[in-house]
């Protein structure tokens, strides 16, 4: 992968979002917040490990932490979080109801 700040191809951006060593939300949570208490489950079906939500303390103020798209965000999950007031993404992340590979086959 190329260094940050350099022009990279679209497929290299996708590869970056899928890289196994990319940081995950909990990596950032541990650096930014104290007293993080993660919530689990949706009260009807099950826990979704791709969606992280919980309570924490940030600069001595209580906050709610909700997962953002850090790497690859796709399929029905993308639709499920699209109703949020804000959707935040990091550089080289993507958010779509279809994978980039499948998008490239649409004519």
What report would you give on this structure?
- The protein has 107 residues and is α+β, with helices and mostly antiparallel strands.
- It has one domain (10-103).
- 25% of the residues lie in helices and 22% in strands.
- It contains 4 helices and 5 strands.
- It has helices at 10-18, 25-32, 76-81, 100-103, and strands at 34-39, 53-58, 61-66, 72-74, 94-96.
- A 3-stranded antiparallel beta sheet has the order 1-2-3, covered by helices on one side. Strands 4-5 form a two-stranded parallel sheet.
- The model has no long low-confidence stretch (mean pLDDT 74).
How many distinct beta strands? 5
Strand neighbour order, sheet with most strands: 1-2-3
Biggest beta sheet attributes: 3 strands, antiparallel
Summing up helix and strand content along with how strands pair, one would put the structural category as alpha+beta
Note the beta-strand portion: 15-25%
Name some characteristics of this structure.
three-stranded antiparallel sheet; single chain; two-stranded parallel sheet; 25% helix; alpha+beta; 107 residues
Topology overview:
Elements: H1 10-18, H2 25-32, E1 34-39, E2 53-58, E3 61-66, E4 72-74, H3 76-81, E5 94-96, H4 100-103
Parallel strand pairs: 4-5
Antiparallel strand pairs: 1-2, 2-3
């Amino acid at each position: 992968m190329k260094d940050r700040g350099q022009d990279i191809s679209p497929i290299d951006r996708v590869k970056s979002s899928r890289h196994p060593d990319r940081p995950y939300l909990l990596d950032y949570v541990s650096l930014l917040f104290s007293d993080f208490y993660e919530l689990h489950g949706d009260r009807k079906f099950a826990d979704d490990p791709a969606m992280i939500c919980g309570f924490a303390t940030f600069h001595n103020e209580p906050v709610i932490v909700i997962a953002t798209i850090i790497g690859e965000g796709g399929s029905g999950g993308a639709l499920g979080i699209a109703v949020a007031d804000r959707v935040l993404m990091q550089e080289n992340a993507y958010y779509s109801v279809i994978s980039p590979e499948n998008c490239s086959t649409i004519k």
